[in-house]
């Protein structure tokens, strides 16, 4: 198991440690160094969003410390951690709600400083929170355009383009494979998975390039969680960079391309899918020793093994 950011990786015998270059003649680059540098520059240019060693404190409480991650187009980066791991603070930094106290925030490879979620949204970074920011008694199409209503006419003749709004909602939901019986039905009559899917379609429609999803499957059953994961895959296949915040490795592993693990505000490493198994993710999140101790306590006193 290898951490892709090199923070928790051990050196392999006979191979230079990550961050070091192979020795070569003085003044001469190691073989392939030019190609590696070009590939690294290309990868950096492809990153939609990146944070480097960001930290955040609230008074004497360290909420986040030296956390780094990147989001690339057409990939799902899963941020995993138990309650109190720092996931909410990281979301608020990524979404522009909080400015980091330390570290760097980059969008398209250039430093960025947001003063509000609107600034982040203007750069194509959309966040879908657990409460979805929707009104249950309003119709699906009204919620879809809430705060960004299309209008016809000018001045005192301006009016809500109801027919156009309904048409757009039907088309956008259909294009993502979302089957809503009637866009006039109240939002509260939809299932949890359907409400999440509408929120995802809304973010895509309004130009999101990076989609941050805050625990979208936490309150859903198995079938509805599968529905949401399917729509996340569709957003990824459209070229969006997706940040999937969750505490459930069984939901994260099938959809994720990269996994950032947090524990008490610190990073346990960022792993590629080929570098870690689902069981290893679970063990890293919960702590392998703690799980073994719990299994022993629950075994009715039977000797381990």
UniProtKB/TrEMBL annotation:
It comes from the Bacteria. One of its GO terms (molecular function) is ATP hydrolysis activity. Keywords: ATP-binding, Nucleotide-binding, Sugar transport, Transport. CDD domains: ABC_Carb_Monos_I. InterPro entries: AAA+_ATPase, ABC_carbohydrate_import_ATPase, ABC_transporter-like_ATP-bd, P-loop_NTPase. Transmembrane segments: none annotated. Residues 22-39 have a biased composition (Low complexity). Residues 1-39 are annotated as: Disordered. Pfam families: ABC_tran. Residues 49-289 form the ABC transporter domain. SUPFAM superfamilies: P-loop containing nucleoside triphosphate hydrolases. This is Simple sugar transport system ATP-binding protein. It comes from Streptosporangium album. The lineage of its organism: Bacteria, Bacillati, Actinomycetota, Actinomycetes, Streptosporangiales.
């Amino acid at each position: 198991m290898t951490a892709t950011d090199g923070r928790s990786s051990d050196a392999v015998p006979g191979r230079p440690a990550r961050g070091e270059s192979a020795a070569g003649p003085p003044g001469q680059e190691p073989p392939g160094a030019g190609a590696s540098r070009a590939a690294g520059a290309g990868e950096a240019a492809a990153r939609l969003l990146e944070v480097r060693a960001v930290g955040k404190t609230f008074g004497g409480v360290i909420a986040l410390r030296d956390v780094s991650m990147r989001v690339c187009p057409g990939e799902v980066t899963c941020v995993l951690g138990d309650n109190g791991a720092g996931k909410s603070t990281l979301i608020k930094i990524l979404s522009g709600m909080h400015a980091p106290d330390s570290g760097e925030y980059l969008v398209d490879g250039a430093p960025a400083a947001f003063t509000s979620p609107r600034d982040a949204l203007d750069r194509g970074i959309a966040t879908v929170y657990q409460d979805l920011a929707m009104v249950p008694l309003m119709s699906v199409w009204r919620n879809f355009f809430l705060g960004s209503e299309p209008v016809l006419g000018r001045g005192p003749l301006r009016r809500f383009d109801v027919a156009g709004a309904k048409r757009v909602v039907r088309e956008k939901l259909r294009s993502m494979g979302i089957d809503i019986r009637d866009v006039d039905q109240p939002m509260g009559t939809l299932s949890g998975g359907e409400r999440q899917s509408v929120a995802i379609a809304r973010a895509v429609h309004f130009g999101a390039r990076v989609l941050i999803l805050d625990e979208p499957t936490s309150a859903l059953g198995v079938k509805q969680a599968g529905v949401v994961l399917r729509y996340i895959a569709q957003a990824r296949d459209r070229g969006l960079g997706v940040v999937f915040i969750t505490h459930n490795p069984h939901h994260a592993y099938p959809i994720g391309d990269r996994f950032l693990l947090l524990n008490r505000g610190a990073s346990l490493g960022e792993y590629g899918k080929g570098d870690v198994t689902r069981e290893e993710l679970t063990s890293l999140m919960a702590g392998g020793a703690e799980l073994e101790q719990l299994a022993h306590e629950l075994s009715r006193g039977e000797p381990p093994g």
